[in-house]
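Would you kindly consider the sequence and fold I have copied below?
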Amino acid sequence: MKAKLLKTIFSLTILLFLFLNAYPQLTVDAGKDTTFCISMYPDSIYLGENVTIKNGTEPYTIAWECKVSRGLYDYYTASDFLNDSTAVSPYIESWHSNGKWIKFILHVTDSENNYTKDSINVRFSNFGYTLGYFVYEVDKGDSVLFHESSVGGGIAPLNYHWQPTIGLSNPDSLITWCYADSLTEYSTSYDIIAVDSCGCVSEPNQVYEIRIRPTDVREIPSEDESLNIKQIGSKIYFDNKDYLAATVKIFSLNGQLIYEQDISDNYLEIGKLNLTKNIYIISISLDDIVGSKKISVR
């Protein structure tokens, strides 16, 4: 009796195996759990880009489902996040910024009314930015402690990086010293970038501007259009129709005089002065008229 029962069970198992292989079941794979990095100017992002459906008969009926609390007895559903909850790979048109996982369930029914489902967990990482920045006017030899971040949000913990790195004791730390002795420009602006635990990277956001007080006794000339100074390529032109003697001075942005010459012409070829690529201030004196303007050496 027992042997007969075992034989019957074995036979039924074989038949079930043959049936399942002859008529494989409808299956769906919604893909791997995903974290979406949302930039300041986000590109289009889609749910279900890696969905695979097997062993069904098209066309399929699709339905995405989720349930996220937004208050007492009130919930967000898939239609609050997706542009079309009946598409296999819908566009995500809104998201939560708290970094919590949201479970989306994908329901699939084929044309023969076979049904299956699968789920995928997604979360969104986006950063918040603070406008405005700190300006410090310091002397050579001074130092400033950087300790403020203008970037928040993301999925904690956050790591930070300062750029440029010049003058910084540790550019990969939120708290770092900036040493003015190392700075070569009149003004240096520092941005900070945050990287969260998922590898999402923020946009650079300015936090500090360090200005070096001039060490030269001369004052930086302000812009004055008296002589109609113009830069065209590597030549600086000015009004001098009678080709009188003019004194040309070039200053760095921190007020240091780096070039001076008397000329009797209406232009100066700065490409021949062996200046490093930078922004400068040119001052031209002609009789009792003095004009000045920022120029660029490329």
Notes: Confidence is low (pLDDT under 50) at residues 15-20. Helices lie at 2-22, 78-81.
